[in-house]
Amino acid sequence: MEEGLRRETLFCFWVGSPFSFPAFRDELAQYGAVFFSSKTKILIAMKRFLLFLAALVLAFVLQAQLAETRTTLHFAVDDHRLDERALAEIERFLATTDRSEEHEFTLLGHTDADGHLGYNEVLARARARSVRERLISLGVDPARISTRAFGERDPIATNTTDEDKQRNRRVELVFSHQVLGGLDDLNARIASPHVSTHTIDPTKENWLRGQQGVVVRLAANSLVDAAGKPVGGNATVTLTEAVALNDMIAEGLSTRSDGKILETGGMLRVDAVDASGSTLALSAGSTMLVSLPAAMRQTGMTLFTSNDGGDWDNTGTEPLDLRNRDLPATAAVRVARVLIAVYKADLSGKPALPVEPARPREPAPPRRESYTSNVAWYQALSKNKIAADDEKRYQAAMTVYADRLAKYEQKMEQYHADCKTWPERYARYKRDHMEWVNDTLCAREDFYKKARPEAEERYQQRLASYKAECERREAEWRPLYEARMAEIGRELDSLGLSGARDLGTYVFAASQLGWINCDRFYEVPASQKYELVVHDADTTQKNVYLVYTGMNSMMRLQKRSDGSYAQPGVPRNQPATVVAYKVENGKAFLCKQAVDPRKRMDLDFKPASVAEIRDAIQGLRKS
């Protein structure tokens, strides 16, 4: 191994080569030892050997369809730039590859465990991007390159020493030469590394971590066999993660529940078998804790379960809030209020402000024309009488005016007299008011000089009592709180949720194995629903999916008897894309079309690499 660089090569061998895989030879030797160790166990050993041999043959078949070579490029601390050694290694590695037929470059970015999880994922993507740009500059087709950032989630060494951290700061450059064996083979190629197998002791508590950040906790003795009895020997648990859209599609999943659309936050399948291969289940009353990573937590999410991942049942179970769960509450202590007496001034001796003289308004004389009536032609005989009535009303108005004028003259005399005395009256008011204010302020000061010390003494007595009660309750509560926080901290660390990482994580308590889905319903008004029909000209087996690009939701379209694919209840106002792929003569073909409810849709396939299909699917995911 060269310092700073690690090169690994995966070769494929045909069945029958006894020197191909040393690990397999050791396994065969183990089974042989069991086979010959005891005649009483010969049948059991034979059964296990045949099972192993079948798995070995299947592994060889798959390996015959995929040849890989790889190398590892290392980086400096907190850096994504390629040094001279890494640049030389990339050129050396490219010289060994044969790119004349179907091939793919896969870049897997990693970091050490220092720093925040989100920052490390960004750094891992930057490192993979640096390698990608270098490959492109050396003539590699960008469509043949796919990248994936693991951050700190897939270390190859511990992060306790500088040397181990250096090994983890890497990008794994993988060259794959592919010959597709069919649609299932293409599904496997499209998917990310998302299936992991764990051998556990079911009599103990087990924490299982997947390759995409999923964490599962199985309580001790929670796994039982078909008879309901706890498992005594070792068990094998398989985690199938479907957090990324390409993994959901490769697994044939849909976000649908009884015909309704779901918006997903991530999917997971948990399967368990005992040493003999018999299926296990969770015991009655037991739950397993499931942590699903998410870019951002959404409200309204609940836990759904399914047998096949095509249609989901709502359990109504909401995500757990581990940080605020079962914390001991503190009893509230309120300090008694101490009110100081408030001084109230004596207003009975307060001088009244004199009223400033106001000039009276002179009355206006009545206007003659206001008392002259217009005589119509039919009133000609009453003209004199009307004129007499007008004169009478006018004289009455003049009498009222004369009376008002006399009163006005009297008011004017009083006004002139008040104007003469007003300056003296106002000056006297100001002197009296100032004396009253000074007397009031002195009385107020004398009042508070006596009241404040009394109130302060009462306040200090009550404050001392309050502080003593707070200290007593704090002494009772603090040990309970710290013990519970330590327990929660250990639980969060085991789930990988230390610091603020749980902000983008859903944690559920599931009561059964199988497919588990974190979802919420997406309601579609009846007026917005329509049936999407996708027409297809050929009968080749293919996967056809409807992916909603504005949310994390997709569903596999159902094939009808006429060869078309259909999906009822599609919302008109939600942007969506139909993505389909198939395999013909070992080659992959892709169709990707935006949905327009007003137009007929026909599948139009074009040749594509596995990387192009994977990138096309990943590009549909909600940002």
Tell me about this structure.
This protein has 623 residues and is of the alpha+beta class. The protein is built from nine helices and 27 strands. The chain has helices at 22-37, 42-64, 84-95, 117-137, 162-168, 183-190, 245-250, 383-495, 610-618, and strands at 5-10, 66-74, 103-110, 145-151, 170-178, 195-200, 206-209, 215-218, 223-224, 235-242, 256-257, 260-274, 281-282, 288-293, 302-306, 313-317, 505-510, 514-522, 529-535, 542-548, 553-556, 558-559, 565-571, 576-584, 587-594, 601-602, 606-607. The strands form six sheets. Strands 6, 10, 11, 12, 15, 16 and 18 form a seven-stranded antiparallel beta sheet that branches. A five-stranded mixed beta sheet has the order 1-2-5-3-4, with helices on both faces. Strands 21-20-24-25-27 form a five-stranded antiparallel beta sheet, covered by helices on one side. A hairpin with a 2-residue loop joins strand 24 and strand 25. Helix 1 (22-37) packs antiparallel against helix 2. The longest helix has 113 residues, at 383-495. The radius of gyration is 45 Å and the shape is elongated. The protein starts with a strand and ends in a 5-residue tail after the last helix. Mean pLDDT is 81; it is low at 1-45 and 57-64.
Condensed summary:
With 623 residues, the chain is an alpha+beta fold. It is built from 9 helices and 27 strands.
Based on CA atoms alone, the radius of gyration comes out at: 45 Å
Q: Report low-confidence residues grouped into runs of 5 or more.
A: 1-45, 57-64
Structural class: alpha+beta
- Estimate percent helicity: 25-40%
Mind describing the biggest β-sheet?
Answer: 7 strands, antiparallel
Beta-strand residue fraction: 25-35%
Mean pLDDT: 81
Molecular shape: elongated
Total number of β-strand segments? 27
